[in-house]
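Issue 218. Parser rejects a valid record. Input:
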Amino acid sequence: MKLSILMPVYNEEERIAEALKQALAVNYPCEIELVVVNDGSRDGTGAILDGAADDARLRVITHSRNAGKGAAIKTAVDSAEGDYLVILDADLEYDPMDIPKLLDPVLDGRAEVVYGNRTFGSHSAYSFWYVMGNKAVTTAANVLFNSYIGDLETCFKLLPVELYRSLEIKSRGFGMEAEVTGKLLRRKIRPYEVPISYRARGREEGKKITWKDGVEALWILGRERTRKR
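Output the parser choked on:
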């Protein structure tokens, strides 16, 4: 099995070098590739990626202008050579050391789709409204699709590359998180969840998601629930 780790990047010059280092330092239980999409960064991100250490597992693709997380992931998926994929943001909020935990249920045959579940239970850096917004979107998905997942908006979604391609994700921004989950639940595919660590960063540190993305996620979930087969 080969795992494609997909990293969308936009204006992360302060973190991208460390993000690459951490992702490539993990002792994975399978072969991996790290596909980085520089989504039209306007800071020094591109120069850092150009000078990244030569590693046969690393590939960099560049968008000439910013197109959004969903668009960056689509570019990465289109070029992915692995059997499975997982998304890893470059903001250092997620720990790539947790990726092997997501792989375990797949490698031992217990699951096909695995989500990393952030518990939001023990870190003082979380925004109350961010956590409540995440819970509201997740609850909406559970009610609409009669499911019981704990963290819809998690970045850590591990699934077969061909399954992701078959979902035909259209959302170009953060709405892709809701669209992926909505389309999986619509197909009666329930993600297997494992607990992961998470260190939220604040708006002043560059966090990009806003309340508008939460509203869009709710709209997307409703659309997917009512869409004709």
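Fixed in the parser; the record now loads. Residues 128-145 form the longest helix (18 residues).
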